[in-house]
């Protein structure tokens, strides 16, 4: 008889709301190496992933660069909708046109423009010249930084000195194709164009420095690709009538899943939207939420959702529990909802509360199929926004979609507050430290997760879920002192690095 710890069913039925740091797993039996752990999973009923990572639909987390990088790693990004329909569609169209694991910031100008400052190049080696000065029009040429610096008359129109023979490659080329071509031609950079567009729209820019940087990163696993060979991509929409028109445009751009985005998903509005999606786009996987209780989950499962998003008030920038007194500790929420969802074959996305690899291990071992990350990804190169310095630390802005700043752009619909006379914030605006590229730290994070699963004696997510349901996975609650002991303590100072 196993007297160590408690099975999850007993631990989570005592009336306490536990979060990840409150609980700890007891070790199992190891008979396999960490590298043999299989992290393949499902985002939703019909979408497989190589790694259990999902980028959150937040406007400081997921746009083109994040979506492309996550898919290249084997995960998936969910593009936010705190923008116009055309802007969201453009983000998806750009991401879908990529075959390499990064997206560059592109700068465009028209032939009649002038370049007055080197700042106009930002971090790009060139400015592309198109007929109308935007990316949708025909490419005419480019101006390199070096050409502009050697120009005697900086007020001259671009048409008088631009290079009219730009070297381009199809955006369908993979990393090895592009790297090989650039090496053979000794090019410093090359533009990638979408050959499916009539004007050959420029969708990416690859430099020789990019090639060297990618070669030095950990080897990527299997990318997330659809049947058409393009990167898998999800998008979020709300529950307003106008979101039906938004969804129509997103489906045309080729999204693989739609997330009905709401902080409290058990509503008439969401149920009506789920019915609309299932009737109008039966091929499209629809993910409902957010939910934290069995009752909420069962209501959405009855409507035919293909996945559930779990979490309410657990994000680092979310104040829903504080403001509204509604929510649930994330560990309890994930266990409870996944227990019901599993009976119907519905994968669960643990959304919020992820700040280290141990939290990922806990979320997955408590029944989730994937974890959705916001702050964990927000400081990366791939997150939208620019870096700035605060108190000597390089940071990027990160804001909750319930913050007043985000709600002024339309995210108040997520909190069912777009028709309210008074706007009440359920989130804050903050900043997160520079983390570098997710192409580097996500592979290291996944290796740490594999080691966690090895310690549990689980060689896969499915194995971990079996240990959970059978009662072989044992847990205990940690006291405050135990939580302190489980972290770094007793030092005057230290440098905390995971890789």
Automatic annotation (TrEMBL):
<comment type="function">
    <text>Catalyzes the conversion of inosine 5'-phosphate (IMP) to xanthosine 5'-phosphate (XMP), the first committed and rate-limiting step in the de novo synthesis of guanine nucleotides, and therefore plays an important role in the regulation of cell growth.</text>
</comment>
<feature type="binding site">
    <location>
        <begin position="261"/>
        <end position="263"/>
    </location>
    <ligand>
        <name>NAD(+)</name>
    </ligand>
</feature>
<dbReference type="InterPro" id="IPR001093">
    <property type="entry name" value="IMP_DH_GMPRt"/>
</dbReference>
<feature type="binding site">
    <location>
        <begin position="374"/>
        <end position="375"/>
    </location>
    <ligand>
        <name>IMP</name>
    </ligand>
</feature>
<dbReference type="Pfam" id="PF00478">
    <property type="entry name" value="IMPDH"/>
</dbReference>
<dbReference type="GO" id="GO:0000166">
    <property type="term" value="F:nucleotide binding"/>
</dbReference>
<dbReference type="InterPro" id="IPR005990">
    <property type="entry name" value="IMP_DH"/>
</dbReference>
<feature type="binding site">
    <location>
        <begin position="311"/>
        <end position="313"/>
    </location>
    <ligand>
        <name>NAD(+)</name>
    </ligand>
</feature>
<keyword id="KW-0630">Potassium</keyword>
<feature type="binding site" description="in other chain">
    <location>
        <position position="313"/>
    </location>
    <ligand>
        <name>K(+)</name>
    </ligand>
</feature>
<feature type="binding site">
    <location>
        <position position="316"/>
    </location>
    <ligand>
        <name>IMP</name>
    </ligand>
</feature>
<dbReference type="Pfam" id="PF00571">
    <property type="entry name" value="CBS"/>
</dbReference>
<keyword id="KW-0658">Purine biosynthesis</keyword>
<feature type="binding site">
    <location>
        <begin position="351"/>
        <end position="353"/>
    </location>
    <ligand>
        <name>IMP</name>
    </ligand>
</feature>
<protein>
    <recommendedName>
        <fullName>Inosine-5'-monophosphate dehydrogenase</fullName>
        <ecNumber>1.1.1.205</ecNumber>
    </recommendedName>
</protein>
<feature type="active site" description="Proton acceptor">
    <location>
        <position position="414"/>
    </location>
</feature>
<dbReference type="GO" id="GO:0003938">
    <property type="term" value="F:IMP dehydrogenase activity"/>
</dbReference>
<keyword id="KW-0332">GMP biosynthesis</keyword>
<keyword id="KW-0479">Metal-binding</keyword>
<dbReference type="InterPro" id="IPR046342">
    <property type="entry name" value="CBS_dom_sf"/>
</dbReference>
<dbReference type="GO" id="GO:0006183">
    <property type="term" value="P:GTP biosynthetic process"/>
</dbReference>
<keyword id="KW-0560">Oxidoreductase</keyword>
<feature type="binding site">
    <location>
        <begin position="398"/>
        <end position="402"/>
    </location>
    <ligand>
        <name>IMP</name>
    </ligand>
</feature>
<feature type="binding site" description="in other chain">
    <location>
        <position position="318"/>
    </location>
    <ligand>
        <name>K(+)</name>
    </ligand>
</feature>
<dbReference type="InterPro" id="IPR013785">
    <property type="entry name" value="Aldolase_TIM"/>
</dbReference>
<comment type="pathway">
    <text>Purine metabolism; XMP biosynthesis via de novo pathway; XMP from IMP: step 1/1.</text>
</comment>
<dbReference type="GO" id="GO:0005737">
    <property type="term" value="C:cytoplasm"/>
</dbReference>
<comment type="similarity">
    <text>Belongs to the IMPDH/GMPR family.</text>
</comment>
<feature type="domain" description="CBS">
    <location>
        <begin position="162"/>
        <end position="224"/>
    </location>
</feature>
<keyword id="KW-0963">Cytoplasm</keyword>
<dbReference type="InterPro" id="IPR000644">
    <property type="entry name" value="CBS_dom"/>
</dbReference>
<feature type="binding site">
    <location>
        <position position="426"/>
    </location>
    <ligand>
        <name>IMP</name>
    </ligand>
</feature>
<feature type="active site" description="Thioimidate intermediate">
    <location>
        <position position="318"/>
    </location>
</feature>
<keyword id="KW-0129">CBS domain</keyword>
<keyword id="KW-0520">NAD</keyword>
<dbReference type="GO" id="GO:0046872">
    <property type="term" value="F:metal ion binding"/>
</dbReference>
<dbReference type="InterPro" id="IPR015875">
    <property type="entry name" value="IMP_DH/GMP_Rdtase_CS"/>
</dbReference>
<feature type="binding site" description="in other chain">
    <location>
        <position position="315"/>
    </location>
    <ligand>
        <name>K(+)</name>
    </ligand>
</feature>
<comment type="subunit">
    <text>Homotetramer.</text>
</comment>
<dbReference type="GO" id="GO:0006177">
    <property type="term" value="P:GMP biosynthetic process"/>
</dbReference>
């Amino acid at each position: 008889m196993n007297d160590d710890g408690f099975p999850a069913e007993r631990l989570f039925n005592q009336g306490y709301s536990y979060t990840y740091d409150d609980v700890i797993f007891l070790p199992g039996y190891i008979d396999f190496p960490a590298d043999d752990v299989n992290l393949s999973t499902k985002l939703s009923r019909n979408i497989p992933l190589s790694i259990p990572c999902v980028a959150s639909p937040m406007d400081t987390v997921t746009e083109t660069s994040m979506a492309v990088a996550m898919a290249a790693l084997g995960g998936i990004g969910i593009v936010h909708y705190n923008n116009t329909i055309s802007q969201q569609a453009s983000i998806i169209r750009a991401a879908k046109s990529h075959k390499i694991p990064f997206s560059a910031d592109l700068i465009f100008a028209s032939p009649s423009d002038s370049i007055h400052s080197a700042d106009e190049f930002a971090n790009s080696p060139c400015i592309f010249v198109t007929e109308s000065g935007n990316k949708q029009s025909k490419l005419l040429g480019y101006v390199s930084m070096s050409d502009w610096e050697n120009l005697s008359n900086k007020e001259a129109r671009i048409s008088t000195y631009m290079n009219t023979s730009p070297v381009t490659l199809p955006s369908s080329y993979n990393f090895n194709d592009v790297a090989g071509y650039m090496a053979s031609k000794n090019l410093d950079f090359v533009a990638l164009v979408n050959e499916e567009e009539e004007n050959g729209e420029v969708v990416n820019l690859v430099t020789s420095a990019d090639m060297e940087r990618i070669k030095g990163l950990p080897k990527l696993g299997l990318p997330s690709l659809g049947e058409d060979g393009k990167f898998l991509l999800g998008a979020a929409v709300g529950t307003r009538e106008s979101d039906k028109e938004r969804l129509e445009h997103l489906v045309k751009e080729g999204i693989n899943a739609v997330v009905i985005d709401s902080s409290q998903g058990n509503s008439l509005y969401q149920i009506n939207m789920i019915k609309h999606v299932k009737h109008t786009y039966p091929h499209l996987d629809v993910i409902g939420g957010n939910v934290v209780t069995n009752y909420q989950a069962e209501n959405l499962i009855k409507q035919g959702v293909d996945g559930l998003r779990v979490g309410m008030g657990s994000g680092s920038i979310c104040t829903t529990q504080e403001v509204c007194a509604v929510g649930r500790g994330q560990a309890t929420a994930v266990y409870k909802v996944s227990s019901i969802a599993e009976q119907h074959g519905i994968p669960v996305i643990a959304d919020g509360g992820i700040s280290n690899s141990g939290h990922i291990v806990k979320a997955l071992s408590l029944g989730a199929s994937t974890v959705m990350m916001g702050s964990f990804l927000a400081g990366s190169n791939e997150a939208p926004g620019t870096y700035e310095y605060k108190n000597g630390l390089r940071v990027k802005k990160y804001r909750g979609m319930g913050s007043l700043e985000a709600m002024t752009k339309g995210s108040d619909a997520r909190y069912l507050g777009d028709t309210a006379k008074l706007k009440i914030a359920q989130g804050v605006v903050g900043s997160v430290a520079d983390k570098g590229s997710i192409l580097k730290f996500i592979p290291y994070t996944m290796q740490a997760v594999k080691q966690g699963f090895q310690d549990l004696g689980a060689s896969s997510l499915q194995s971990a879920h079996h240990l959970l349901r059978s009662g072989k996975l044992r847990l205990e609650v940690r006291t405050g002192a135990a939580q302190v002991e489980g972290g770094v303590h007793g030092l005057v100072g230290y440098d905390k690095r995971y890789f």
